[in-house]
Every structure is written in C-alpha cells, then in structure tokens.
Amino acid sequence: MAPPAASQVPAHRQHIEKRLAPFPPEVQDSAVVSPDGRRIAYVRKVGQQQAAVIDGNQDSLYDRVEAISFSANSQWHAYAAESAGKWLIVINGREQPPQARVGPPIFSSHSKRLAYTALQPDGEHVVAMEANNPPGRPYERILAGNLVFSPDSRRLAYGARRDGKWYLVIDRAEVGPYDFLGSSTGIQFSPDGAQVAFAALVGKNWCVVVDGRPQKPYENVASLLLSPDGKRLAYAALAEGNWRVVVDGQQQQPYESIGEGTLQFSPSGTSLAYAAQSGQKWLVLSDGKEGKPYDGIGAMRFSPNGRLLAYAARLGSAEMVVVNNRDQKVFDRVAGHSLVFSPDSSRLGYIARVGRASFVVIDGKRNPRYEMVANLNFSPDGSHYVYAATNNGKAFTVVDQKEAAHHYDAIWNVPEAKFLFDNRKQFHYLAVKEGDIFLVEEEVE
Q1: In whole angstroms, what is the distance from residue 414 CA to residue 375 CA?
Q2: Cβ pair 243, 256 in contact under 8 A
C-alpha cells in the first residue's frame, strides 16, 4: 500500500494571481496553452458563429475557427478560420488571403516565420507563407501536417506529389522523384539545418535519404532519428522478416520488433538506446548491449549528462523504473512520460500508482498519496521539486512534500507537461477558479 498522506500544516507560499479570461466548461476542449505556460487561447461560440479568444480578448467572428497555435516564443498566435465558404489563416488578428481550404499554421522555432498548406480553386495544393510571400509551386497533394522548419528556422521542407511521383521540397527545390514518402518517419533536420534526412519508397523498397543520397534499401523503415549534434543517424529497418536498428550505416542485431518511438540518443549523441522485442520479452539495448528482459518497456530518458538511462518496465502486472539496468521499487503503474532528471543529473523523479492512489517518487522515496498528481519538475538547481495534486475535488501545488494552502478547481497544464520555472525559487502555471482561468506565479520557499 502507498503511505498515507502526511499530517502537515498547508504552506502559505507567496503567490500572485493574474486573471486571464473566463473559462467556462464549453470552451475547455479547444483550449491551447502557450509554450511558456503563461497564455491561454480557445474557441468560443457566439450565436451561430465562432471566435478565437486569446487571454480573454475575443478576435473577429467567423463561421468556424480551428487549429489555434502559439509561436515558440509565445508572442504570436495563429488559427484557421472559415468565412462564407472560404478558409484563411489569421495571425495576431491579421487575415491572410482566402483559400478553398487551409491546413494548420506552423511557426518556425524562432517564431519569425509561418507556413501552411492551401488548397486552390483548381484543386492544386501550395505551401503559403505569411508576410505576403508568394506561394510555392502547386502540387497535386502536399502531405498534411508534414511541414517542417529546420531548428535554425532558415529552411522549410515538406513532401509533395506531382505527376504521380513524390518529392521532398526543401526551400522550394525538389529532391526526387520517389514512389512515396514516409509520413510516419517525418523529416529530420540537423540542429544547424545543414543536413536533412527522410524515408522514401523506391519501387518495392524503402530507403533513408540523407542530403539527397539514398542509403541501403529495406522492406520498411521506421523511427528515423538524428543525434542532437546532427553527426549520427539511426533508424529501424525491416529485412527478411526481422527488424534491426541501423546506426551510422551499420546494422545492429535483428529482433522481432523495435519499440516505436523508443530510439534515444544521449544529449551528447555518443550513446544510443532503444527497446526491442526478443521472443515474448522486451529489453533495452544501450550502445548494442542488451539489458534485462521484461514483459513491456515504456518511455525512456537519458540524464542531462548522459550517464544514466531510465525507463519504465513491466513484469507481469507490476511496473517499475529501471536505471542503468537496476530495478527500482515495484508499483501497480508507473507513468513513463513523467520521468524527469534534475538539471545536474543527480536526482530522478516520476509518478506512480498503487490501487487508486497516485504519488510522486523522488530519489526512490514515495511522497504522500493523492487522487491524482501531474506536472512534476525539479527547480533549475535541483534543490526543490514541485508537482500538481488533486484531493477531494480541489487542485493545489506540492513543493518538497509541502502542500500549498491556496486551492483551485483545476490546474490547467497539458497533462504530460512539467511545471516551468522562472528561476530557482519561482515557478508558474495556469489554474481555474470560479469559472475563470488565472496565471499563478509561486515561490518555492
């Protein structure tokens, strides 16, 4: 059983609340939180029309509004809107030219560029850019949701079909033709934008293409990944009925399956880990060395210094966290997505469950139990940890096992997100109280 909640006096931590907007239940399904966790946007129905509401400020009315997004710096917002049978992108209130249909707006990482797909009246697709840039070359089809800016924001790539063949379009130049492009593997840029990798179908085989040069063909490829420094490339490949990871052009040992989305490079790019299926068991490989077998493997995380590898694993009905091949404590459930290391790599935390009780585990020790916990994170210096908890219909923050005295109806962060710190002693979040949503800034001490 999980330990009972500690008997303690709630902490009256210093905090500041800023009301952002009304937040009735009917708008909450469309709500979007900005990347900095300080802004809220949603779609509001007004009679038979709809409007985007940004931090409580209502934009123009349209017949329909969808796909609200914030820029990476959280200063810009954009969405798609329908008016009189035409669709357009709206950027911070500025309407772009109307189209027959538009795809969702995509911001670049430095937030100064925006792109989206547009369907023209003649049925052809183009990629349009804001700031009145001319649209790109028309195509029969452009892969939806596959517009990718390079990390340095200088380059834009996407997959497009012309005359029945597919091309990767980079900065409006075509690479190809191919019989199809791998939509699930996506387009991978190196951090400096100099390299680009993607998967392409050539005849009956798939191959990874790096800077226009095709690699060895396989029956299928998946989980394409460039290392953080852009110097190494890994992916899963199917050949003769078995899957194997190909790293730096070299095939590793074959397995029945490679865990989808489990390929992980360490922050320095020197180590590679992934999950693989061998018979009825799953195991983690780190730099080609097999770990212990389990019935299932969940999310994996390298520590910031790359020396520790942690992942969630299942044996029978029990789940645990494994750190460098050493099993930690056993629970009914472990939320693999919640694994978080402190910035200095000295501490590890995660969320677990026994029965109906949820709790945080820090440095191997269980915290008090609650109905629900989320948003776990460490302070920048690693000396504090903070998370959201819910008990008896009220939500509040917990810092180092000390519950906040101020309660809310809900703490409105993305469920798998972590609380964001402004400095080593202050963090912030969005919270709902009495039908309104607030930005709350709170001290840890």
Answers
A1: 8
A2: yes
Would you give the DSSP letter of residue 130?
A: S
Do 124 and 17 lie in one domain? The reply is no
Token couple for 301: 């995380």
Mean per-residue pLDDT of the chain: 92
Residues 343 and 439 in one domain: yes
**pTM for the predicted model, two decimal places:** 0.90
- CA–CA dist 366, 381 (Å, integer): 21
> Which pLDDT does position 51 carry in this prediction?
97
The 10s digit of each residue's pLDDT in 161-177 is 999 999 999 988 999 99
Beta-carbon contacts of residue 210 (< 8 Å; ≥ 6 apart): 195, 196, 197, 233
Evaluate whether residue 442 is within a structural domain.
yes
d(CA 46, CA 61): 8
Hey, how many other C-beta atoms are within 10 angstroms of the C-beta on 223?
21
Q: Write out pLDDT tens, residues 379-424.
A: 999 999 999 999 999 999 999 999 999 999 999 987 678 999 999 9
Q: What is the maximal distance between C-alpha atoms in the chain? A: 71
Owning domain of residue 66: 31-138
